[in-house]
TrEMBL record:
It comes from the Bacteria. This is LysR family transcriptional regulator. It holds the Pfam family LysR_substrate. The keyword Transcription regulation applies. Keywords: DNA-binding, Transcription, Transcription regulation. The lineage of its organism: Bacteria, Pseudomonadati, Bacteroidota, Flavobacteriia, Flavobacteriales. One of its GO terms (molecular function) is DNA binding. InterPro entries: HTH-type_LysR_regulators (IPR050950), LysR_HTH_N (IPR000847), LysR_subst-bd (IPR005119), WH-like_DNA-bd_sf (IPR036388), WH_DNA-bd_sf (IPR036390). The keyword DNA-binding applies. Belongs to the LysR transcriptional regulatory family. PANTHER family: HTH-TYPE TRANSCRIPTIONAL REGULATOR YBHD, NITROGEN ASSIMILATION TRANSCRIPTIONAL ACTIVATOR-RELATED.
């Protein structure tokens, strides 16, 4: 059993298509099919059901995938450890970010690139749900997000700061002069909110539910800059963490009376993953912002 075969198998599992997997791996489909067939022969178990041009993962394939991931990860971490001996002379760092934390990301990235120009950065903005899934699958090294209600046991958390959830409206809104606003008043207004996969929306909907109030959500959107622009134009209102709308001159943020707790912005990493020197250095820079 070779690591190459495990990587081929995992890519085929990810894409559920031999042709697409082969293209992604820059090999021929016949090579991919042959290597996976050899792997199945060696373990004496089919990993895929072939149905015409379609493939489906067998029950054995689903179980085997977990062991394959661990084997590939262990191999990659061994290489990382050797690379670290060269003290950040090469390598890459994959970072997932919630949009609300972009304000602390930019200065950290600037400092990191200036200090370690030889390290490549891959930065992914996504919903918290997707970021945590990718972190758990070791597809990301670090995640900047808000801490979920129930911290996961397989993650390491480093607290960054506490951000307050605010009612956000246009500077031209009739509500812009308010010092505070209650949930009942907010619920009567047309709201725009991020999609359900965003941690902000999870938090806000729970807040309404706890107070037995149903909000008037007129729109859900997966692009925060567009949501902000819509609110700036006075079309709708929203609720966001105050760190999300930092330096937005056309918006006003108003504290919510029923919101008694702030949200923790955290830096997360997978507990069982090898911590590279690049991860440690970037984490230190983030903590100093």
């Amino acid at each position: 059993m070779e690591l190459r075969q495990l990587r081929y198998f995992l890519k085929a599992k990810e894409l559920m298509n031999f042709t697409e997997a082969a293209n992604a791996l820059h090999i021929s489909q016949s090579t991919l099919s042959q290597q996976i067939k050899q792997l199945e022969t060696e373990i004496d178990t089919p990993l895929f059901n072939r149905i015409g041009k379609r493939i489906q993962l067998t029950e054995a394939g689903n179980i085997f995938a977990n062991f394959a991931k661990k084997s590939v990860r262990s191999s990659e971490e061994s290489l990382l450890a050797m690379h670290d001996l060269k003290k950040l002379s090469r390598g890459s760092l994959k970072i997932g970010v919630s949009y609300g934390l972009r304000s602390i990301l930019v200065p950290a990235v600037k400092n990191f690139i200036q200090k370690y120009p030889q390290i490549n950065l891959e930065i992914l903005f996504e919903t918290t749900d997707i970021l945590l899934k990718k972190l758990g699958d070791a597809e990301l090294d670090l995640v900047l997000s808000y801490q979920e209600a129930q911290p996961a046991e397989n993650f390491i958390y480093q607290n960054l700061f506490v951000s307050e959830m605010m009612f956000v409206t246009s500077v031209h809104s009739e509500f812009s002069k308010l010092k505070k606003i209650d949930l009942k008043t907010i619920a009567a207004l047309p709201l725009a909110m991020p999609f359900d996969g965003f941690s902000t929306t999870h938090y806000v909907m729970d807040l309404f539910k706890q107070n037995l109030i149903s909000p008037n959500v007129k729109m859900k959107i997966n692009d925060i800059p567009t949501l902000i622009e819509i609110v700036e134009n006075g079309i709708l209102h929203t609720i966001l963490a105050d760190s999300t709308v930092t330096d937005q001159q056309n918006l006003v943020t108003i504290p919510i009376k029923e919101n008694k707790a702030g949200r923790k912005a955290v830096l997360m990493q997978l507990k069982e993953a090898y911590q590279t020197e690049a991860m440690k250095s970037f984490a230190e820079m983030i903590m100093k912002i």
